[in-house]
Amino acid sequence: MKQALSLGRRGLGRVWPNPSVGCVIVQGRRVVGRARTADGGRPHAETQALAMAGAAGRGATAYVTLEPCSHHGKTPPCAEALIAAGVGRVVVAAGDPDPRVAGAGLDRLRAAGIEVTEGVLRDAAERDLAGYLLNRRAGRPFVTLKLASSFDGRIATATGESRWITGPLARRTVHAMRARHDAVLVGAGTMRADDPALTVRGLGPMPQPVRVVASRRLDLPDGRLAATMDQALVWLCHGGDATRDRRTIWEERGARLFECGVEHRQIDPADMLAQLGAAGLTSVFCEGGGALAASLLSAGLVDEVLGFTAGVMLGAEGTPGLGAMGLEALAEAPRFDLVESRAIGPDLMHRWRVQRHSQD
């Protein structure tokens, strides 16, 4: 199962709206088939691994990180493929909460006389598949908030200079994290201030994440985003007050537009994420700015925080990493548990997961 999990992780950010599943087929002590969900979401891991195994799959044990699908979609059910191949046993890490599956895949296997073992390395599988599982359970993608700041929590000097607070190794790590998510999200202020391309660079050819910008009025610059429309999808989340002219300009460039509700003169983050989830996204890597990050945190919609802290001080006049959150008491502040921390060149990377009771 550890091999299957490792395979599945290789597909993160590359297979939405499907989950990145790993499958390993073992005959005796020999691995006869192995695969992960293909880029774009098809073919599924099980059918590829079975094709590799061929006749050696009969009577074998299949280790799968997620319950095999049991519904007919654009491809036949994986549960039926396992039955047709004559496997003798299926070991599953995590169940699939999709109402079209939700235990039906395992029931179909058992009805065919196949031995089924559930829950092997379930916690690890659910961590890897957190985005897909959250999408199916809550209808929204898993949100990772990235904050790169000075030691005193600033993201720019008083004049707006921000390139670069952290070093090249930290920035390369950020590109790797972008690649593991379905989409990269920023606010309009970040687009105007930094003119980012939001693509994955320096890691070789690979599928690019969707570039999502939250801009209530669609008052975006004609910068690198507009100049690179052919390199990656662009989705724009806007309010009802975005003019028809601005909508038309971006639609003609090839962007997909989402009209979202507005709260306190900002895009409603819950509505935005619900629409992105309905469009198939399972994980979003938010890179700011401060107002967008604060709105996501205030709404309880951040699942993980990834911080990069540099050993430099910018002072109170520098730009803070977060916008106003209106907190009056510590008890109101969102809290996270430290998952890992390590040096990335001269900088410190620290990763935090939302405290479980915060979601209750």
From TrEMBL:
Keywords: Hydrolase, Metal-binding, Multifunctional enzyme, NADP, Oxidoreductase, Riboflavin biosynthesis, Zinc
UniProt cross-references to InterPro entries, sorted A to Z: APOBEC/CMP_deaminase_Zn-bd, CMP_dCMP_dom, Cytidine_deaminase-like, DHFR-like_dom_sf, Eubact_RibD, RibD_C, RibDG_C, Riboflavin_Biosynth_HTPR
Residues that, per the record, bind NADP(+): A148, W164, T190, D194, G289, G290, A291, L292, A293, A294, S295
GO biological process terms, semicolon-separated: riboflavin biosynthetic process
Reactions performed catalytically: 5-amino-6-(5-phospho-D-ribitylamino)uracil + NADP(+) = 5-amino-6-(5-phospho-D-ribosylamino)uracil + NADPH + H(+); 2,5-diamino-6-hydroxy-4-(5-phosphoribosylamino)-pyrimidine + H2O + H(+) = 5-amino-6-(5-phospho-D-ribosylamino)uracil + NH4(+)
Pathway: Cofactor biosynthesis; riboflavin biosynthesis; 5-amino-6-(D-ribitylamino)uracil from GTP: step 3/4; Cofactor biosynthesis; riboflavin biosynthesis; 5-amino-6-(D-ribitylamino)uracil from GTP: step 2/4
Keyword Cytoplasm among UniProt keywords: no
Domain CMP/dCMP-type deaminase per the UniProt entry, residue ranges: 1-117
Binding positions for Zn(2+) per the UniProt entry: H44, C69, C78
Binding of substrate, residues: S162, R178, L198, R201, E287
Cofactor details (free text): Binds 1 zinc ion.
Membership in a protein family: In the N-terminal section; belongs to the cytidine and deoxycytidylate deaminase family.
Protein name per Swiss-Prot or TrEMBL: Riboflavin biosynthesis protein RibD
Protein species of origin: Salibaculum griseiflavum
